[in-house]
Design goal:
2 domains; mainly alpha
Length: 106
């Protein structure tokens, strides 16, 4: 195997393993899949994997920030909070779509 691939797998594995307080099924499945593909000498697009992980982390961060922001004034800002969460979710879901865009994604 190429030293760059080994280094990339090692970095990706460390990032996946340390980014969570405890491992969940998503993290285990992604790490296992990447390791399996490397053992089988299959090509992996690390840029695409990193991009999807980055989008996922940013989505979680946005939802967390909105929760923290609106915990202080829940009764006054419930409608705005719901609307902003809906827009963040829609934006994330639309970013996952490739060339096809449904009627909610313009």
């Amino acid at each position: 195997m190429n030293i760059k691939k080994i280094f990339a797998v090692l970095i990706l594995f460390i990032l996946l393993a340390t980014s969570f307080a405890r491992a969940d099924s998503y993290t285990n499945s992604i790490a296992s899949h990447i390791i399996t593909q490397e053992i089988q000498n299959n090509d992996i697009n690390y840029n695409a994997v990193g991009n999807v992980e980055f989008k996922r982390k940013m989505h979680q961060l946005n939802l967390g920030l909105l929760t923290i922001l609106f915990n202080n004034k829940p009764k006054l800002l419930d409608g705005i909070s719901t609307q902003m969460r809906s827009k963040v979710d829609q934006s994330y879901k639309c970013s996952l779509q490739g060339d096809y865009r449904n009627k909610y994604c313009s």
